[in-house]
């Protein structure tokens, strides 16, 4: 792509620009650890180049191992019900790149993405941003141009060295801490909690949603060091409900309530009605899908993007509560400890193991010896949708299908099947 070439927007040009972006820039979601660029030096230079739009936003920062996507979408829905213009930055996307950057539930305009990618031609070569660094500055600039009232920013990976940690938010939250990305964040809960707590900033309130004293103490100590108020969301009791149906959402609701209360302290108007209605209309308001998402009723088909051990334990426990024989389509990425996952699989099920269609996608044949040892009823398929088709062909009306194990498995399934009549 020449620096002097001017290209007009079209669907074809947009797709070519997006393809170029994925190829040119290291992308952790696709390539894994080798694409991860920790530290804030690069994103600082990038934001400086674009005029530091993040400094002009009223931001809310949400991190954690699990639940940060659900929590940020619930809060966005509540603020939308109050009448605010709300920017929402989540990752990764399931179907379309523009899902990462939303305003009041509407994906970022493709024209903006296209134009912003063209600006890469003028970035000094010494910056060389990662994929996530570039999408982060893209979100900041989009929210600034659209004059959002609030920008809810989800941490990408970890916290302390994450690109989003360049912001100075009104309030921050850490939903919980569990073992995930140990090759980057550390092997122990203490190490990972310390990385997550890196989003705590001087004199900015921090909300903790984790129930374990070990994690609470690490976050609270970081708050003390930064003279920041520490708020324990687990002390909140509520009967409020959300349309996001996973049992685990009860814990996320408490974090949302703590966030709302802190924003109210900062003279931001949020009525009880907006809170209640917002929680019950998350999918409608933000178009959030992927977490305990009911794709169809007959047969019952549910998908969930839980992908680490703690998240899968919660999802599989909820599956066990459903009194139906299950056809379970699962796929994983390369760093997944398959032997640990196999210990918690739901019973009364037939399994369809698939390979996600990305570089990091793990071929089930590589861990077939573990499947044999586990003595489960399984088959291996070359792709997500071939596996799903086999499950659907065998599923009786009295049975159900579950699709999960990875964001990419759910994304592949939804990309093909949301657009096709069932």
Give descriptors for this structure.
422 residues; alpha/beta; eight-stranded mixed sheet; six-stranded mixed sheet; 40% helix; 14% strand; globular
Brief summary of the model shown:
It is built from 17 helices and 14 strands.
Question: What this model shows, in words?
Answer:
- With 422 residues, the protein is of the alpha/beta class.
- It is built from 17 helices and 14 strands.
- The chain has helices at residues 11-24, 28-31, 41-49, 68-81, 110-118, 131-145, 182-185, 189-196, 213-225, 249-265, 272-280, 282-286, 309-320, 338-342, 368-374, 384-394, 407-417; strands at residues 59-63, 86-89, 101-103, 106-107, 150-154, 171-174, 206-208, 230-232, 293-297, 300-304, 326-331, 349-354, 378-381, 400-404.
- The chain has an eight-stranded mixed beta sheet with strand order 4-3-2-5-1-6-7-8, with helices on both faces. The protein has a six-stranded mixed beta sheet with strand order 9-10-14-11-12-13, with helices on one face.
- Strand 11, helix 14 (338-342) and strand 12 form a beta-alpha-beta unit.
- The radius of gyration is 21 Å and the shape is globular.
- The two termini are 41 Å apart.
């Amino acid at each position: 792509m020449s620096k002097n070439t001017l290209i007009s927007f079209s669907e074809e040009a947009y797709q070519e620009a997006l393809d170029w972006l994925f190829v040119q820039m290291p992308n952790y979601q696709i390539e894994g650890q080798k694409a991860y660029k920790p530290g804030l030096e690069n994103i600082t230079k990038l934001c400086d180049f674009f005029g530091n739009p993040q400094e002009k936003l009223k931001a809310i920062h949400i991190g954690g191992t699990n639940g940060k996507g659900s929590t940020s979408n619930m809060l966005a829905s509540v603020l939308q019900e109050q009448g605010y213009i709300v920017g929402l930055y989540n990752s990764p996307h399931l179907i379309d790149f523009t899902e990462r950057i939303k305003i009041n539930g509407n994906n970022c305009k493709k024209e903006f993405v296209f134009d912003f990618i063209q600006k890469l031609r003028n970035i000094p070569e010494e910056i060389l941003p990662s994929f996530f660094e570039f999408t982060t500055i893209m979100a900041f600039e989009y929210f600034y141009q659209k004059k959002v009232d609030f920008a809810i920013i989800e941490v990408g990976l970890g916290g302390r060295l994450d690109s989003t940690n360049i912001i100075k938010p009104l309030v921050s939250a850490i939903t919980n801490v569990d073992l995930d990305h140990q090759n980057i964040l550390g092997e122990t809960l203490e190490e990972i909690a310390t990385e997550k707590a890196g989003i705590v900033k001087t004199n900015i309130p921090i909300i903790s949603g984790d129930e374990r004293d070990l994690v609470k103490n690490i976050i609270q100590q970081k708050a003390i060091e930064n003279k920041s108020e520490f708020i324990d969301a687990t002390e909140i009791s509520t009967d409020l409900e959300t349309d996001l149906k996973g049992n685990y959402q009860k814990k996320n609701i408490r974090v949302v309530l703590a966030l709302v209360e802190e924003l109210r302290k900062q003279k931001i108007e949020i009525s009880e009605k907006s809170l209640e209605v917002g929680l019950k209309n998350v999918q409608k308001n933000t178009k959030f899908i992927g977490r305990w998402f009911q794709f169809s009723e007959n047969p019952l088909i549910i998908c969930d993007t839980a992908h680490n051990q703690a998240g899968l334990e919660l999802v599989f426990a909820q599956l066990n509560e459903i009194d139906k024989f299950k056809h379970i389509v699962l796929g994983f990425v390369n760093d997944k400890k398959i032997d640990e996952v196999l210990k918690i699989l739901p019973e009364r099920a037939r399994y369809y193991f698939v390979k996600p269609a990305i570089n990091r996608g793990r071929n089930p044949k590589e861990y077939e010896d573990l499947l044999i040892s586990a003595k489960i009823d399984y088959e291996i398929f070359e792709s997500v949708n071939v596996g799903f088709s086999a499950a659907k062909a065998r599923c009786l009306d009295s049975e159900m299908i579950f699709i999960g194990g990875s964001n990419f498995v759910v994304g592949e399934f939804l990309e093909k099947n949301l657009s096709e009549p069932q």
